[in-house]
Write a structure and sequence with these properties.
Strand content: 5-15%
Radius of gyration: 38 Å
Structural class: alpha+beta
Distance between the termini: 49 Å
Number of strands: 11
Largest sheet: 6 strands, mixed, barrel
Amino acid sequence: TIAAVIPANGAGRFSLQANQQLPRNAFVPLASLQRALKLAGRANAILVGGEREAESLQAILRSSLTLDDLDLRTRINPARGYVALESRRMILEPVVVSAALAVAKDLNLSAAPTLTHLANTVAVGAREIPYSTVTARDDGIQRLKDDEILLNDWAANDLGARPGDAVRLDYYVVGPRGELLTTNHVFKLAGVVPLSGAAGDPMLTPDYPGIANTKNISDWDPPFPVDLKRVRQKDEDYWDAHRGTPKAFVSLATGQRLWSSRFGNLTSIRLSSGRADVPPAETDLRNTATRFERGLLARLSPDQLGLVFQPVKEQGLRAAAGATDFGQLFLCFSVFLIFSAAMLVALLFRLGIERRAKEIGILLATGLPARVVRRLLLLEGGAIAVFGSALGLAGAVGYGALMLAGLRTWWLPAVGTPFLKLDVTAGAMTIGGAGGLLVALASIGLTLRALRKQSPAMLIAGKHDDADRLVGDERGARRRWIAAGIAALGLWIGRRVGFWWRNRGCDGFSAGWRLVASGGPVVHRRVVPSRAAPFDNALASCRLARRAQRRAPSGSQRAHGGHGGLGHVPHHGRDRIPSRAGRPPTGEIIRRWRVRAGGRGRCAAASRPERPRGPRGAQHPAGGRGPTVRRARRPVPIAAWRRHQLPEPLRA
């Protein structure tokens, strides 16, 4: 029963993932959910409040860790004298297997890895047995070659099988998208073993959910589809007498080749003293199990198996900073507009002085000092600049609000989140307004310096010196060379700074800014007698720098001899499904990577991903990161390598 609908903020917005997506939360009592899932006393997350650091909490967790916390357990088989390590998840993770084998070696125990799989059908010719377990092992029974199989005498008699016959197994495997696929494999029958001893052990089969705790096969309720109509009475009798005892055996290498998954390739590890002639007492087995558990816990850490305390608030604050520094990015986008605006202020004010030359000449002729006239003009221009800055601040707030309204509605797919709000602070408004005012005053002040070279008589006559006439004289040529040298030095310094700025997402536009700021306006003013030249210079320099930046490979790509954005990989493709087929071209090596789940670190991402998405296991030969993948319009299948010798790097 729905008790209430809460708003999508506060507790309703609760999520352990630091992103801008709205979670679909439903809150129920913990005990009710545990009872519905039949997981009494268990949880998959623990929330800890207060000021404790994650490292201290992790240390407490490690000191109090048990095998049950890791979904592991040990089972004792006194009849056959061994201790079995199993997992509630059915499959032992590789890190657990490595630690268990190391502990067994330290304790001088014999370790026997085992992999048991459920076969939907065991068939010889037209005769078949439904739903039987098959164990892959290398101990206690006859040594088997690849693609050889042993049947116990019950199964051999039921199928009428003899050594040398072909035995077909049908079984489920996990597909590339997590779906269950049915496949089969044909084995050669190497022999028949009695349903006793090492081949008659029901503990070789792990406790399958919905199967192990049932009295009859007809009561099975596994998490995968089964057709219980295929079950015969003799199958029920076998279940009553022997439970899940395997009916067939293959070599461990064969079983791991056919049934391994990305989760692991073993279902249990059996530990014994190695003396089959003297079975240990049950007390000795319990002591062995206790010593083994202690050693295993000492070698395992919680974070290896996903039990990690995460500083959720700290991660959220880091993610809120965004994947891209938009302040730097927008500054680089609009820097040429800022310089153009400053030039426009200077040109307009210069035009005003030219139109009021007689007025200024009369003021100077009446005895007013030039500095007083310049101060009056500066105050006049400053008053207009103050009014323009205030108007610009109001326009900036309105423009920003309009842009965010568009991103929340019309352009929502561009950012993928509606949680965008305009943050207007007094500090930002003060800095913006003061910055605009200072730029305007500086432009006006530089323009007024030209009054020092004007005589009152020439101003009253309506004449004034034009700096553009310096183009043809010797002093103008010298200034052009000086300006060109300043521009070259500025480009070199800016290029060095650009390596540091590259990761901030605006290297191409910062190159245009470097050209404008390092003397481009001076060169234009001294060489080209045009008032439109500063605008052309600013715009053209940014276009040229942007185009050059797109064509140039990055430093890491040059270091590894790569092409474009593919790092050291000459050909790169991404298939829709994991592919095992296909031959590489002569002399080529295919490396397969599985893309791990995670956030995408892109410009449009509103949050910074804590676990960026990327190829799992990819590594540069020189120790760097894996290749950079740039999204194309269509994925290119790996099978293309079978048909073409690709001449150029393939962007995927």
